[in-house]
C-alpha cells in the first residue's frame, strides 16, 4: 500500500483493513510473497527489513496454527 494512501485512511479504516487481512489469512500470504520476491532477487530491501519480515512471518504463523 502506498504510504500516502495509508496516511489518508482513518485509524478505524486501518484497523478494519488489518482485521480483514488477518481473518482471511491474507497477511501471512502477503508476507510470504514478499519474502519470496526478496529471496528470488526480484526485490531489493535492507537486511533489517528482511529480518523483520521473517520474524513477523513466523510470529503470525505460530499464532494462526
UniProtKB/TrEMBL annotation:
**Could you tell me which Gene3D superfamilies the record lists for this protein?**
1.10.287.3030
Xref: InterPro entries = Antirep_AbbA
Instruction: State what protein this is by name.
Output: Antirepressor AbbA
Q: Which domain of life is it from?
A: Bacteria
